[in-house]
Amino acid sequence: MTCITFKEAATDGGTVNLEEYTASVTGYISKCIDDVTVSKTITTCPNQKPWMTAEVHMLLRTRDSAFRTVNPRKAAGPYNIPGCVLRECADQLADVLTDIFNISPSCTVVPTCFKTTTIVPVPKKPTVSCLNDYRPIALTSIIMKCFERLVKSHIKTQLLPSLDPLQFAYHSNRSTDDAISTTLHLALTHLDKKGTYVRMVFIDFSSSFNTIVPQHLIGKLSLLGLNTFLCNWILDLLTGRPQLVRIGSSTSNTTTLSTGAPKGSILSPLLFTLLTHDCAAIHKFADDTTVVGLINKDDESAYREEVQELVIWYKVNNLYLNVDKTKEMVVDFRRARQDHSPLAIKGSSVEIVKNAKFVGVHLAENLTWTMNTSSITKRAQQRLYFLRNLRKAHLPSPILTTFHRGTM
Q1: Which residues contact residue 397 at a Cβ distance below 8 angstroms, ignoring those fewer than 6 apart?
Q2: Is 252 helix (H, G, I), strand (E, B) or coil?
């Protein structure tokens, strides 16, 4: 696909109308998907261009990788362009999409069709009794996801490796295992001392991505050293976003949003971690947040003060704590244990529990792995039971394999 025809049609007086340019390209791709029924693989051996340096080769590989790493099983998004089209037609689509990707940051404008989001409510549990029992899944443009992967890689190269050492998400060589081991090591090291105990509060946010204020986020990105063009591009990405809700074949009216970040996008989790980077005294994995209080001689004043300062920080940054879902766990190995008074957040007491879930792992107040192991074993037994029943029904191996990969 050549970009010249589309670009010329969208150019008026020497200025490219990015909205019209992008809409015509995506519309043409959608038409091809509907019309074309025969696929053919063509191998080409282009001559090496004189300007094809090693650096250009690397950039092209990065671009092509963004297309070819698209998961074809993911939902097609608002404009019904499936991921398999980008994977199989990467060579044909690369030129025109690269041109759009280059124009967009230079004029700090994200095409509206790339920002459009379709929300599909998915039940959180088998029996639904209220709207809060639904999880809103955001379906965004597959093409925009490719673009965001490139921007995400660029942003990460601009950040210091030492930024927010207690944030374990979206950093090289960090994972949930590091978050858990660091938290437990800190607690166990402190508990080796005489007359000590540990209090952990596991904080729950209400729609953390939806409450992001773009202008406030951009101010923090500027302080981190991201250039003005990139900051303004991100601001345009997060503002003026058309959004609609789809249930079955029915859709709602479109609403334009200028707050929050779509949870289904590639950039949103990284942007959230950058928003919270200056809250460095807590252990974080994306929006999973834990405060570890190291208590000596029953003096909890510093711990309680830190929690209250954290509550104020959340309010300033427009993040909302869900006190009902926020839990606290006390790890106290002393022989003469006393009752511990609960934390108070926004006038409500935080429930003290004997076990809590942190980044998918069950932590118990005695810091043993019994409960977590039992939970994993029980879940595996349930999945194997379903798998055995499917096998008894003589379902073919590919379906059994798909079920296994999707549930285990």
Answers
A1: none
A2: coil
Q: How many CA atoms lie within 13 A of 55 on its CB side?
A: 1
Burial class (CB in 10 A: 0-12, 13-18, 19+), 89: middle
Residue type, position 54, single letter: A
Report the alpha-carbon distance of residue 110 to residue 104 in Å, rounded: 6
CA distance linking residue 179 with residue 347, whole number of Å: 30
> Residue 190: which pLDDT band, with cuts at 50, 70 and 90?
very high
pLDDT tens-digit series, residues 139-170 = 888 889 888 988 998 898 888 766 777 777 76
Distances from the Cα of 175 to the Cαs of 35, 166, 170, 186, 408, in angstroms?
Answer: 44, 11, 8, 17, 20
Model pTM?
Answer: 0.78
Asked whether the beta carbons of 292 and 198 are under 8 A apart, the reply is yes
Tell me 321's DSSP state: B
Q: Beta-carbon neighbour count of residue 249 at 10 Å?
A: 5
User: Which residues pair with residue 197 across a beta bridge?
Assistant: 295
pLDDT in tens, 324-369: 889 999 999 988 888 889 999 888 899 999 999 988 899 999 999 9
